[in-house]
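User: For this week's homework, look closely at the record that follows, marking any run of repeated tokens, and judge whether sequence predicts the tokens.
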Amino acid sequence: MNAKEFLLQHLTEGKSYQQIADENNLPRTTPTLWWEEGQELRERIKRSNQLFNGRKDNPNFDEFAKMGKRKFFEWFEDHGQSCDYCGIAAEKLKALFDYETGILATKRGRGRVLELERRDAKGNQYNPENCVLICYPCNNHKSDLISEADHREYFAPAIRKYLEDKYSELRQLNGL
């Protein structure tokens, strides 16, 4: 048992601190320490859980739902920390769309995190083969009209340039 395994069991399987401590012969203070030290991992698991919970009752999400939250998190982690289309890093999106210090904003507060996208919207299937994680600008732009291949060729490079330029502007504004 380590901090990552504790956080996965607690946040994706719903096990309590005490249950995990008892099952692994750990002092009760160990899970508390792991929780405090694991903020970055907790945020990634939380985002994965949000994506999962937001669609788990959708019949088109059935294949992911059968995987469960833990396997979905593993899929989520395997898809990196950047937009699958334009390649912008998730950490840059978080800074660009930050509610207090960012320089980009949307009416619905989107943009700070990667979103679940269906490569092919026909059939509306959410499954590991048809889904990727992408940034809000790519997701908003691609919609159901533009194919994945066309978006990658014609639009993703321009979106990446725009976001990178805005990120440079943000860093200059903050004196970095």
In short: The beta strands are 115-118, 131-134. The chain has a mean pLDDT of 93. Residues 106 and 151 are 21 Å apart (CA to CA). Residues 1-56 form one domain.
